[in-house]
Design brief:
2 strands, 14 helices, two-stranded antiparallel sheet, mainly alpha
């Protein structure tokens, strides 16, 4: 498994670094930049197009690797150059081609919508409609659903809401250098470890691909950022993570003493979920459009309280890790242990809520 991790994460990391470097150079020449103004913090134009690099880094290994596995499995031959560790998993990887094509299609659609919005703002309505259509395509005809024990209509509805919420959560979280990509990398790593512990192979490999893609981009996006992901990247991150959580198996009645493993995604993504929920509430209370950008996020609150941008981002990384890391062992705990884990997550989120509400009148 370690070899698979190194191939998935390491190879994708270098691909992400290379593609981000190339896209940044192209964006600067083409004047495809994000200019200062409004609620934005940067003082000079910064290259856009980071979402293009991340999308390439995610799609090339996932689609390419699965397609190669499908072709090799169909031919019934195993070439000498293929690492031996992959041989036992070849048929399983090949069988995932339809799922991968659905995920890739959703990523491509949202990436294009985000890229159009980065070039000329579309407004929130077209983006929300596109997210909903993609989510229905995933949950309906493609049958990739959350909580499959529920009746099909209910499961589809839950899946659509989950995909749309998580997609927007990471879109909202893209409000400070390195924040969205870093939180996504932490979440992907936890999902990779948790799913591997449950005996899965495909999902952990796909999650490690995400880790490599996000960390490679983070090399250029951490403060002070020299390239932004834009909506072309943040929508892809959110969709990728939402589908990843749906594909992960969290509960096995034959092994786990409690069914609380199914709430692992909520625990891992507690900080992004809190951020999007609290910001929407704050904007509605102020009589503003909940999708209109401002500086009411938790990250902005930390900066307002005196932290540097890097300090605020690192603090949110730590908060994400604090809620996410215990989720690795959550499925195997008894009720008492699981409740303690949930209380710990609640304490972290409550702490964030207190920091967010302190001195709210000073929000810009």
């Amino acid at each position: 498994m370690l070899v698979l991790v190194l191939i998935a994460a390491g190879g994708t990391f270098f691909l992400s670094v290379l593609s981000t470097f190339v896209v940044r150079a192209w964006a600067r020449r083409a004047k495809f930049v994000d200019r200062p103004g409004g609620h934005k913090q940067h003082a000079a134009p910064v290259a856009l197009g980071g979402g293009i690099a991340m999308t390439i880094a995610i799609l090339v290994p996932i689609v390419g690797g699965t397609l190669v596995a499908w072709l090799l499995h169909r031919d019934g031959s195993i070439p000498s150059w293929l690492p031996a560790v992959i041989h036992p998993h070849l048929s399983g990887i090949a069988s995932k081609l339809p799922v991968v094509l659905v995920i890739a299609g959703g990523i491509a659609v949202l990436h294009i919508i985000g890229l159009i919005d980065d070039i000329k703002p579309l407004g929130w309505t077209p983006k929300l409609i596109a997210q909903t259509i993609v989510a229905f395509a995933v949950a309906g005809p493609s049958n990739i659903r959350a909580i499959e024990a529920l009746p099909a209509p209910v499961s589809i509805a839950v899946t659509v809401v989950w995909i749309v919420v998580i997609t927007n959560a990471f879109n909202f979280l893209d409000n400070m250098d390195g924040l969205s990509a870093g939180v996504a990398a932490i979440a992907c790593a936890v999902f990779a470890i948790a799913s591997a512990a449950g005996g899965q192979v495909f999902v952990p490999v796909m999650a490690w691909v995400g880790v490599g893609a996000f960390l490679g981009f983070l090399m250029f996006n951490f403060s002070p950022a020299t390239i932004f992901m834009g909506d072309a990247g943040s929508l892809v991150i959110g969709f990728f993570l939402s589908v990843l959580t749906i594909l992960t198996t969290y509960y096995d009645a034959a092994k786990d003493p409690t069914p609380l493993g199914v709430i692992v995604p909520i625990v891992v993504l507690a900080v992004p979920l809190y951020d999007v929920t609290s910001v929407v509430i704050h904007r509605l209370r102020a009589g503003q459009n909940p999708f209109r950008g401002d500086r009411r996020h938790f990250s902005h609150r930390l900066v307002t309280r005196g932290m540097s941008v890097r300090g605020a981002v690192l603090t949110i990384y730590l908060a994400t890790a604090a809620t996410a890391l215990p989720a690795i062992i959550l499925p195997g705990l008894d009720w008492a242990g699981a409740v303690l884990m949930l209380l710990q997550c609640l304490c972290v989120i409550t702490m964030i809520a207190l920091l967010e509400s302190a001195g709210r009148d000073s929000l810009v």
